[in-house]
């Protein structure tokens, strides 16, 4: 075996080892970074543990589903609840926590034309209102948490 072949093999092995080490280092850094981000979100949830109530309202015609933040989950990963074929007008009061944003998202598909209006009400005041019309309407109302205002 010549010295050139050994050098080429050694260089290839060294390159693979360095790549593997750098890859492992990158994955470890990414994992630690995401963990730190997750810990920050958990700290925010704990710091803003105050609760508040909002009322969602949906009116119109042709609404197939309504999805909304119902209060479960974490601030940045809220649990979404769904109502199939709701009777309109629809109204729901929920208790949310901290910086979790209030959100209600109706979906309507109606060949004769859908009409949808959604509202988010906090302490008797409408903090968000949206209206949509057409063959298909998807959208909704998302507001900023009133906690910390």
Brief summary:
With 149 residues, the protein is an alpha+beta fold.
Any low-confidence stretches, pLDDT <50, length ≥5? 7-38
The rounded distance between the terminal residues' Cα atoms is: 76 Å
Q: Name the shape in a single word.
A: elongated
Structural class: alpha+beta
Regarding quaternary structure, what we see is single chain
Percentage of residues assigned to helices: 25-40%
Count of helices? Answer: 1
Mean pLDDT: 75
Rg (CA only): 26 Å
Could you tell me the number of beta strands? Answer: 7
Q: Which strand-content bin applies to the residues?
A: over 45%
What pattern of helices and strands is seen along the backbone? HEEEEEEE
Biggest β-sheet, characterized? Answer: 7 strands, antiparallel
Describe this structure in words.
By secondary structure, the protein is of the alpha+beta class. Helix content is 30%, strand content 50%. The protein has 1 helix and 7 strands, in the order H-E-E-E-E-E-E-E. A hairpin with a 2-residue loop joins strand 2 and strand 3 (77-84). The chain starts with a helix and ends in a 7-residue tail after the last strand.
What's the structural blueprint in terms of helices and strands?
Elements: H1 3-47, E1 51-61, E2 63-74, E3 77-84, E4 90-97, E5 103-122, E6 125-138, E7 141-142
Antiparallel strand pairs: 1-4, 1-5, 2-3, 2-5, 5-6, 5-7
Descriptive keywords:
149 residues; alpha+beta; 30% helix
């Amino acid at each position: 075996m010549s010295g050139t072949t050994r050098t080429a093999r050694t260089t290839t092995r060294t390159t693979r080892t360095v790549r593997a080490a750098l890859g492992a280092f990158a994955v470890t850094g990414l994992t630690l970074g995401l963990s730190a981000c997750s810990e920050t979100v958990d700290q925010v949830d704990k710091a803003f543990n105050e609760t508040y109530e909002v009322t969602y309202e949906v009116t119109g015609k042709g609404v197939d589903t309504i999805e909304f933040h119902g209060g479960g989950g974490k601030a940045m990963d809220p649990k979404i609840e769904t109502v199939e074929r709701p009777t309109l007008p629809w109204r729901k009061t929920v208790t949310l926590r901290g910086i979790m944003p209030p959100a209600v998202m109706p979906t309507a598909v109606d060949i004769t034309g859908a009409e949808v209006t959604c509202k988010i009400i906090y302490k008797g005041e409408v903090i968000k209102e949206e209206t949509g019309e057409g063959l298909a309407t998807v959208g909704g109302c998302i507001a900023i948490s009133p906690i910390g205002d």
